[in-house]
Amino acid sequence: MAKPISMEVWNPSGKYRVVSTKSMPGARWIRLLTDNDCRLEICTDPKTILSVDDILALIGDRCDGIIGQLTEDWGEVLFSALKRAGGTAFSNMAVGYNNVDVEAANRNGIAVGNTPGVLTETTAELAASLTLSAARRIVEADQFMRAGLYEGWLPHLFVGNLLKGQTVGVIGAGRIGSAYARMMIEGFKMNLIYYDLYQATRLEKFVTAYGQFLKANGEQPVTWKRAATMEDVLREADVISLHPVLDKTTYHLINPERLAIMKKEAVLVNASRGPVIDELALVEHLKANPMFRVGLDVFEDEPYMKPGLADMKNAVVVPHIASASKWTREGMATLAALNVLACHLQSFRGQQLI
Ligand SMILES: NC(=O)c1ccc[n+]([C@@H]2O[C@H](COP(=O)([O-])OP(=O)(O)OC[C@H]3O[C@@H](n4cnc5c(N)ncnc54)[C@H](O)[C@@H]3O)[C@@H](O)[C@H]2O)c1
Ligand SMILES: O=C(O)[C@H](O)CO
């Protein structure tokens, strides 16, 4: 087992030992735990990604509940160790839980929580930012300016794509996909085509009502279509944003065959999970199609990019920051603490937790 790693301790005399593998924004989550008789231990090790051995050392001999991160591998080894340490609750500080083996948690009697909702708008806003940055070549133009290359206005300088009246395609029209669709429809009057396993009824109703509003005001109404296949979205849309969960059905959902059917000047955005795109195939596609642009928040082998991606001018890349607004990150931390309290510490029954 790895040597014990550095910890910051809050409320040392608390009855329940709760561990957080990372420091998280805000003070509310700390207050919630310490006000509810928890001894909170926050790992302060500077290592960005903790290994399974590091986390085993954090769990130790006694741990009632633990808050972990999406970069960690939560499987049988950690859940059985948590069970042996007397723990019954784990919360990921993320809505995505592809890093968590829920069956292993169930086998060990560990309740699992995630942090949906508080990051919906923030993540959708970042997807919208990536869409605009890619469509209007913002990063390329910024680099050109800073390099002192601007000699004056030119008709062909950094010509990109107009969004208004074009079609936005959303794959995975859940909370974030629907919020993104609304932003693009309301903000840029784009038409919608979406693909999801389930019907996005509220989104459809919104687009219908907004279309009627535009028409009543003498403007071109927006439209929506639920696609029968993902390929229909890829063929028809000018902008495609990916928002599904990552599981077996969405792994490499964007592959060479599907890239080939997309418009040559399409914009592809991914703020879901990296492995939803076959990133090596994407690099080849970007090389062969300089007018095809992508905006990526997530990568197949984080923190790394596949060879060649960093050299592509038609790619905008940011380091998994889609949920990084202060309000959202504090909300995620608060939800994670509540998950541990609500799932695990039965003695708090009846207490006001918020
Ligand atoms: N980049 C980031 O920082 C960031 C932030 C938040 C969430 N995410 C990712 O976004 C995902 C979505 O979050 P959400 O809150 O919108 O979740 P959600 O559950 O509300 O939406 C996911 C949608 O994907 C759909 N889906 C599942 N399998 C599909 C398939 N095979 N084809 C098409 N659609 C499919 C589901 O039906 C659902 O509507 C998370 O699971 C997470 O991985 C990333
Ligand atoms: O799934 C999530 O919540 C994100 O990737 C981080 O906010």
UniProtKB/TrEMBL annotation:
It is an enzyme of class 1 (oxidoreductase). Its main location: other. It comes from the Eukaryota. Pfam families: 2-Hacid_dh (PF00389), 2-Hacid_dh_C (PF02826). The keyword Protein biosynthesis does not apply. Keywords: Glycolate pathway, NAD, Oxidoreductase, Peroxisome. GO terms for molecular function: hydroxypyruvate reductase (NADH) activity. It catalyses: (R)-glycerate + NAD(+) = 3-hydroxypyruvate + NADH + H(+). One of its GO terms (biological process) is oxidative photosynthetic carbon pathway. Residues 29-342 form the D-isomer specific 2-hydroxyacid dehydrogenase catalytic domain. The keyword NAD applies. Pathway: Photosynthesis; photorespiration; 3-phospho-D-glycerate from glycine: step 3/4. CDD domains: GDH. Its EC number is 1.1.1.29. GO terms for cellular component: peroxisome. Belongs to the D-isomer specific 2-hydroxyacid dehydrogenase family. PANTHER family: 2-HYDROXYACID DEHYDROGENASE-RELATED, GLYOXYLATE REDUCTASE 1. This is glycerate dehydrogenase. The lineage of its organism: Eukaryota, Viridiplantae, Streptophyta, Embryophyta, Tracheophyta.
